[in-house]
Amino acid sequence: MTHVLTREDARRIAVRAQLLDANRPSDVVGVAEQLGAIKIDPTATIAPAELTILWSRIGSSFESLQLTKAVEMDHQLFEFDGAFRPLSLLPLMRPAMRRWPTRESSRRWLKANAVFRGEVLARLRAEGPLTASEIPDTAEVSIPPDGWYGSNQVVHMLDFLQRQGEVAVVGREGRTRRWDLAERVYPTDLPEYSDEEAEHLLNERRLHAAGIAKQKSPWTPVGEAGEPAVVEGLKQKYRVDPEAVAALDHDDGGRVALLNPYDGMLFDRPRLKELFEFDYVLEQFKPKPQRRFGYFAHPILMGDRFVGMLDAKVDRTAERLVINAVHEFLSFDEEETEMLRAEVDDLAAWLGVDLGEW
């Protein structure tokens, strides 16, 4: 069956799948189960990504300790490749871990550093959990610093070993990761899947989190998951979660949401442009004269449309949320202004700071 959707229907499906509709969730683990990944990033003009992503869904009742508890105490979430993920995804990811690395340069680096690899694992086995700085760098071959990574090869080795399922992040000391052997962090009774089974189930999970995605999207690969869909006015072939289509008749409506620039809702840029007519560009790495909206401006979602950008920053010295600018794509009416103000008020309350002048 091929579903024929209006662009508005497609947007509503995407918004609801990302838990940005009027029906707010209340549970950190439940949010992670639905989204599949909660990006970790330290840029904190307002708050780090992993916290604002959860606040955008749950609201001011969310506390950062809830995330810490889910990861480090209850072990319902785990950190992998720069994101917190639900434990239910780990069995589906393990076949790809066993195949990694697929890039020849990574294989050569691991082969050249076989002794170093063994020493890192031995140190963790004897003394873990450890931070990267507590493990000697004895690499025979180095990867040069690239702006993201420094010269410490232990960081590279730990990341490589994580991708192979050999080590895992057990927790954090501030922004610093603590590592241990994966066998001491992950459960030992996880189900096993073949490569084909795991890929099929991962595609279904990705589509469930997206609601609707292009069939051949490198941004949101969903393969043959779900059912085919046509969006009126668009030529692209989509796949849609049939449960999301059925839920359109029970839509609770929209709300205002302020999205961290690393929010998963913004990840698939082509889909944003096609469905939402929102050509989003992160200006964090642009020279200041080339920025239109601000260094780390947060997109404003109102219902199923992106209507503007919020350029704001927390002044911790003054304990105040400073609103530098609200960029309106189209002028807000009085009701829309009040809806936005209420969400910004909630943001300030969650941050525990006063709200500065608009």
From TrEMBL:
Pfam families, per database record: AlkZ-like
Domain of life according to the entry: Bacteria
InterPro entries, sorted: AlkZ-like
Protein name as annotated: Crosslink repair DNA glycosylase YcaQ family protein
Organism of derivation: Antiquaquibacter soli
